[in-house]
Amino acid sequence: MPTIENLAADVTAFTSNVFLVAGDRTALVDTGANFDVVSAIEARVDGLDAVVLTHTHRDHVGNVDAVRSAFGVEAVGYDPSHPAVDAELGGTVRLGDHDYAVLHTPGHKNDHVCLYAADAGICFAGDLVFAGGSFGRTDLEEGDRETLIRSIDRLLESVDPDLTELHTGHGPSVTTDAYETIERAGQAARRF
């Protein structure tokens, strides 16, 4: 099994990407919505140690109750007052074999975070930035373009230019020119 696998890669229903991260602490980054993620997890691993939410838009947390029930695991996120969040994320979180810094990156939604493992060169960007240099929507409730731009800048300041993997909330992951993808997203957010 790959270390990081998108369980929603072939799903045609409206959902977010759902990343299963294998290793010392098997974790799920976002639960997605509108598909049987529990069966997808069970086909790959015996259980989960953690569920980490990049933010609480419905397409990212729609399956959270099913995952909590099936695996007896808590969902952690930025805003513990949200019904999908059982516990608040600290400054770091262990996913697989790496510790990830939790970076608060609002602008798409107030509780949005990115997760970055410097030693592995991996970033989970949620809906902040996407492949091709696009950026998250700011026309939804809690969205704000200027805040999003500041969050993209914060992400650029936090990650190493040698970033090797950028896993986004929708669309394909970026494994070539990941840092440049974030730069392009910041430029695009300023233009449009």
UniProtKB/TrEMBL annotation:
<dbReference type="InterPro" id="IPR036866">
    <property type="entry name" value="RibonucZ/Hydroxyglut_hydro"/>
</dbReference>
<dbReference type="InterPro" id="IPR051453">
    <property type="entry name" value="MBL_Glyoxalase_II"/>
</dbReference>
<protein>
    <submittedName>
        <fullName>MBL fold metallo-hydrolase</fullName>
    </submittedName>
</protein>
<keyword id="KW-0479">Metal-binding</keyword>
<dbReference type="GO" id="GO:0016787">
    <property type="term" value="F:hydrolase activity"/>
</dbReference>
<keyword id="KW-0378">Hydrolase</keyword>
<feature type="domain" description="Metallo-beta-lactamase">
    <location>
        <begin position="15"/>
        <end position="170"/>
    </location>
</feature>
<dbReference type="Pfam" id="PF00753">
    <property type="entry name" value="Lactamase_B"/>
</dbReference>
<keyword id="KW-0862">Zinc</keyword>
<dbReference type="GO" id="GO:0046872">
    <property type="term" value="F:metal ion binding"/>
</dbReference>
<dbReference type="InterPro" id="IPR001279">
    <property type="entry name" value="Metallo-B-lactamas"/>
</dbReference>
